[in-house]
Amino acid sequence: MSTSFVSIVRCLVIGMIAILAAPVMSIAKPVSPDFVELAKRLKPTVVNIRTTKNIKPRQRARHPQFQQNPFNNFFDDFFGRYSDEAPQQRPRREQALGTGFIISSEGYILTNNHVVNGADEVLVKLSDGREIKGEIKGSDEKLDLALVKISEKEKLPVAELGDSDSLEVGEWVMAIGNPFGLAQTVTAGIVSAKGRVIGSGPYDDYIQTDASINPGNSGGPLFSADGKVIGINTAIIAGGQGIGFAIPINMAKDVVAQLRDKGKVTRGYLGIRFQPLTADLAKSFGLDTDKGALIASVEKDAPAEKAGLKAGDIILEYDGKPITEGNELPRYVAVTPIDKKVKLVIFRDGKRQEVTVVISRLKDGAAQASAGSVNESETIGIVVQELTKELASRLGIRDTKGLIVSEVKPGSAAEEAGITAGDVIIEVNGQRPDTLEKYNAAAARLKKGDVARLLLKRPDGAIYYVAVKIDQ
Q1: Same domain, 249 and 280
Q2: What is the CATH number of the domain that holds 212?
Q3: Where are the beta strands (DSSP E) in 242-302?
Q4: N or C: which end of the chain has fewer CB within 10 A?
Q5: Which is catalytic among the residues 192, 200, 212, 218?
Q6: Which residues constitute the domain of residue 391?
Q7: Considering the entire predicted model, what is its pTM?
């Protein structure tokens, strides 16, 4: 056998051995966080909140199927309620349980507005068992946030706020709260989705998670894997398992300073109503994309009207930010400083144009930029929206035309009568208000002391009447 042949064979053998000995490439598996360490470190920053409200006697009208509505527990029943006096005819004290978390060593605590709304007394229980009386420093009903202050000589542990914009679907998250009064309960899961719209208000942009949250978790923190708050647990779907919703912490950052300094939130105002831009609508306007917000109407004397915007314009960009989904627009407008000049890129008459608008302050009851047609009736205490196929699909109801209750004001006559989000309005005092104009006309005729008779249809198909006594 020749020397050269032996050399070739030796090289081949050595090469095969090297290949077999080489490590096999594999996809790195994600390592779950050390939840034991996270829980030890973060639990001291989470507090339990117990509120007491003195309820005056009032006649309550509840339909027997009211408790069966799957949308009933979105907010008001997201934390435990119980009464220490059963008879409805006597004054009673109503107590509620919720959660919050410390955001400054001086004793500022962030929670949900619906946890403390209307409370006559707020008690904050720290992780070490101490109970301290809390003061509501400010609240924001539209975003469902409240700031509570406790006085404590010692410096308190603080929950660090993270960046919810950088959050990705599939990331590990951990919730700490007070479900059903079970203090300091820790649960874990992942981010199931971002940007969820659940029909709760104009700023819907929820983080969906399968970390177990229940009544009592409301107002508690949703932590990222590195131990930073990326959301405030706020809503659940009654009967749903593994479906919870949290307000992104970046939205809360925009309002916390205002709540601390002013007790309320000032928002920007554009003054338009828009609707989602579908592919068919975009094509009809000659636009080659369905990304944008289609202006349906412009309010009189609003910044939008002064800037020359009109129905049929499609907003493609707001202050340098592209509008990929129409629901982004209200959030962009809301956080815009008052009197700021903002450039809009719009599509009109087959071409793109730039328009400059001066943002003003949103007044109570005004719509800075609302999706669809929405009306807030202070008289009855409900927010009414024209039903669309998209909204019907999202809420899981068959009706695709008419008016739907998208929000019920806490403590209102409507809440007392049993009206809840998801109800479709069939009649108001015998009239069928199938448009907002007709509904507004019917509501405008109501005076203090009148009784509004509403015929409603529940999402489960049940049809029933409620009587709402007008008290304002």
Answers
A1: no
A2: 2.40.10.120
A3: 244-248, 268-269, 272-276, 293-298
A4: N
A5: 218
A6: 376-469
A7: 0.65
